[in-house]
């Protein structure tokens, strides 16, 4: 249930209707409150303010009618401009970036401000009456305080419109788009590592604490004691509620092994996880474990670091396509990918063996490795960047930046493998002087990484660190 609520919360953040609806309801309540205050306080409070004067019914109606008509017109124009900007950006940078623009709070508040002012004006307008309109002896009623609040809302709407005119072009500027994705990627790395499901168990997969049923040499009898928990939905796994998994495993005294991670596609019947032993995994346990997964029609960045990496890779790959040929946009993506991977290189990745408070093994999570992230970021872009001199140099520089944050020999070996593979690709795709420059830069990086003092070699080489395109 918690996973579904978190997914619903994310869907509301990425919708254009939720914030405007809340603001419209607030405007309705505000209008009702102002009219109530006016009906009890009257307009005598204005006598002590010479710069204010009481409006007559006809003037008040004309004012509120003008405000309401203009606000709904501006709201329609604003919505059209927003949709046009979203369509342009998603077509130019990639359809998976649509959710980034849909979740933009500035656009949502702008649309909500105009709609709220419109609703407020209509609500107050219907309360105005002329003398004798409701009866021969009925006095005229004009909510003077409510009219003053309407004017304030108009001024706020004008300020929001000015903000919107500036905000839209800034929002779709490619550098700002890349920056927002890169910032969120680094924030997610910072908040997630080292954050585990339960307590990490610093043991190998073949450690005796892992049930024999989950080992490669498990017998048929041991395999039969594993209960598969299958998906009843089709779509991408958007969220896995770690707390629910751990609590259910502890309550029913189970050990579970995840078969999927956030961002993977599951269909009806896919085995989401396996639980051991089977005799303790009844219907209640299966239901509790299945509810820890939220499945939707698209990937989200809720728990999926790969999705954010893929967004940057997609922008860079489109920029390096022959039809666009914009290596400098690709360079910006490489800069942010390098910064994110450098941040990841300084962190210990969690063990896939997780325990509860009593140090009992409960969850065998999907393994997360530095190699996998590097391949997702740089390996996926190598085929595109290796065919361009400008992007190729920045690709190698980004690998060098990641190496400056690495202290682990295994991670340095991963970067070396990436640099060698990239050098091979560049040799086959580039010609002449372009090939010599990129291959020479790759050789320089490989020689530096082969040295024991590789960080000093990289820092001391001014041509390397300052030799970006």
UniProtKB/TrEMBL annotation:
Keywords, in A-Z order: Membrane, Transmembrane, Transmembrane helix
Any coiled-coil regions, as ranges = none
Which residue intervals are annotated with compositional bias (Basic and acidic residues) in the record? 214-224
Q: Membrane-spanning residues where?
A: 16-37, 62-88, 109-128, 140-165
The region called Disordered is annotated at: 200-224
The protein, known as: DUF2254 domain-containing protein
Instruction: Record the organism.
Output: Sphingobium xenophagum
């Amino acid at each position: 249930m918690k996973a579904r609520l978190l997914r619903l919360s994310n869907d509301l953040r990425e919708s254009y209707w939720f914030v405007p609806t809340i603001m419209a309801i607030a405007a309705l309540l505000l209008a009702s409150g102002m009219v109530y205050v006016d009906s009890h306080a009257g307009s005598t409070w204005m006598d002590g303010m010479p710069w204010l004067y009481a409006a007559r019914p006809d003037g008040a109606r004309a004012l509120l009618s003008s405000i309401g008509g203009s606000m709904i017109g501006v709201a329609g124009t604003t919505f059209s401009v927003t949709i046009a900007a979203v369509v342009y950006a998603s077509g130019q940078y990639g359809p998976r970036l649509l959710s980034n623009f849909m979740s933009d709070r500035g656009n949502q508040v702008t649309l909500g401000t105009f709609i709220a002012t419109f609703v407020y004006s209509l609500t107050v307008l219907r309360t105005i009456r002329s003398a004798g309109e409701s009866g021969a002896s009925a006095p005229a009623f004009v909510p003077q305080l409510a009219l003053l609040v309407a004017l304030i809302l108009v001024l706020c709407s004008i300020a929001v419109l000015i903000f919107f005119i500036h905000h839209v072009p800034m929002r779709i500027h490619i550098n700002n788009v890349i920056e927002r994705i890169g910032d969120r990627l680094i924030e997610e790395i910072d908040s997630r590592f080292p954050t585990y499901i339960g307590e990490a168990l610093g043991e190998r997969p073949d450690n005796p604490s892992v049930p024999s049923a989950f080992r490669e040499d498990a017998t048929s009898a041991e395999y039969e004691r594993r209960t598969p928990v299958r998906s009843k939905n089709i779509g991408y796994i958007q969220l896995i509620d770690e707390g629910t998994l751990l609590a259910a495993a502890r309550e029913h005294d189970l050990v579970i092994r995840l078969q999927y991670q956030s961002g993977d596609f599951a269909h009806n019947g896919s085995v989401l996880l396996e639980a051991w032993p089977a005799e303790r995994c009844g219907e209640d346990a299966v239901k509790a474990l299945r509810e820890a997964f939220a499945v939707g029609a698209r990937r989200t960045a809720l728990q999926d670091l790969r999705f954010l990496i893929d967004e940057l890779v997609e922008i860079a790959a489109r920029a390096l396509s022959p039809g666009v040929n914009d290596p400098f946009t690709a360079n910006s993506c490489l800069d942010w990918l390098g910064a994110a991977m450098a941040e990841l290189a300084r962190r210990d990745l969690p063990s896939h063996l997780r325990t509860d408070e009593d140090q009992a093994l409960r969850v065998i999570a999907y393994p997360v490795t530095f190699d996998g992230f590097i391949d997702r970021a740089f390996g996926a872009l190598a085929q595109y960047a290796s065919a361009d001199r400008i992007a190729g140099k920045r690709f190698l520089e980004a690998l060098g930046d990641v190496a400056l944050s690495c202290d682990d020999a295994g991670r340095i070996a991963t970067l070396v493998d990436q640099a060698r593979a990239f050098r091979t690709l560049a040799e086959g795709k580039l010609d002449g002087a372009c090939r010599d420059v990129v291959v020479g830069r790759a050789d320089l990086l490989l020689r530096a990484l082969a040295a024991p003092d590789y960080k000093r070699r990289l820092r001391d080489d001014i041509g390397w660190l300052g030799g970006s395109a």
